[in-house]
Amino acid sequence: MEHETATRNQAVERYVLGEMPLEERESFESHFFDCPECADDVRSAAAFVANARAVLRDDALPVEKPVQPRERQAWFAWMRPAWAPAMAGVLLAIAGYESFVAMPLRHQLAAALEPRQAAAQLLRGETRAEPMQFQSGRPMVLNLEVDSTAKPSGYLVTITDAASGAIAYTVQATAPDDDQALSILIPDRSLRPGRYTVVVRAVGGSKPGEEVGRYPFEVK
Amino acid sequence: MDRYPFDCEYVARLKDGDPEVQRHFTGYFGELLVIKLRARLRSPQLIEDARQETFLRVLTTLRRNGLEHPERLGAFVLSVCNNVLHEMFRAEKRTTDMEDAPEPLDERDDPERRYVTEQRKAQVRNVLDELSAKDRELLKQVFLEERDKDQVCRDFQVDRNYLRVLLHRARNRFRAALGGSGGGA
User: Fold this and answer.
1) Over the stretch A148-159, which tens digit does the pLDDT of each residue have?
2) Strands A132-134 and A211-219
3) What is the biggest distance separating any 2 CA atoms in chain A, rounded to whole angstroms?
4) B46 touches B111 (CB < 8 A)
5) Any CB–CB contact under 8 A between B125 and chain A?
6) What is the biggest distance separating any 2 CA atoms in chain B, rounded to whole angstroms?
7) Do the beta carbons of residue B183 and residue B175 sit within 8 Å?
8) Predicted TM-score (pTM) above 0.90
9) ipTM field
10) Among residues A16, A143, A168, B146, which is most buried (max CB within 10 A)?
11) How far, in Å, CA of B55 to CA of A148, rounded?
């Protein structure tokens, strides 16, 4: 392979992405072992991929932050005789913010943290039957029957809008115990009414990336 | 990575055991060998064995016979590596069932980790932060989740060329950020 050919054919990227057939790969290796410029390109591409993997892996680790509800200060504690006239307008603004913005958000947060009834359904793989239905306005628990002989260490779960094909959510999950379903919690109001497809793929194991199942469901 | 011309002087110094040239030689070709070998061998131990055996044979041959075309030192290293690989595969065929699925790499032993440094990670993080959420997720699913690339491209409604161009640009920004050739740490 000549240098100009390697550059024109995006050889470095295709090599690092594993897209070359064996013969082409060997030809490109023969080239870059003798071409310092292409060797540098291959080296930097490999270093980028290795470090990107490390960064993305670090970012994927769950970080638990305790949620501390903000303590409400009594609003009248801000009142001081000397500052009363100047503080009146500020207090009105704060009260308005509390009433129309902060309080509704606080209620939503408290509601999300409190135990609530959730709609749980067992979803089996794609069948001709109508998809399972969930009522919107409640948290949903999707119990997915997964059966992979490849014994993956985990699963990548993608929830896709069936109409647009757009990915709504991606969830990384560890493999459940044998005979247990893979449970995915969807907080209420996270999905608009419509049809969705859950696609589950293996992570790790003997067949990484294998599609394990497709599960349609509908939010009404 | 400093560049040395592979010429008569370089080969002569290598034959004589010049420590500076030996360091450059093993550093320069060591990385390239690992990149090549990772596509052929899953076991970190086998990759390291093949790398060491390649160097041993190259240096032994140089000291015994020299090299007729010093400027083709790279091609010589590659051909020795290919011979080592063929011998390893022949030995594997005699002793194991080739249909068995290879053991997945243990992260801790992954030879790729030799390329990972805090400085490089910081630069890569900057590059990734500049990407759109879509492009970042695309790279994550390809490189971290190791999903089928065709399927990932279908899911993200892009073609394979988009993925290559994305990698090309990200790699160039990474190299520029490190300020040198080869992405040296």
Assistant:
1) 676 787 888 888
2) parallel
3) 87
4) no
5) yes
6) 57
7) yes
8) no
9) 0.85
10) A16
11) 42
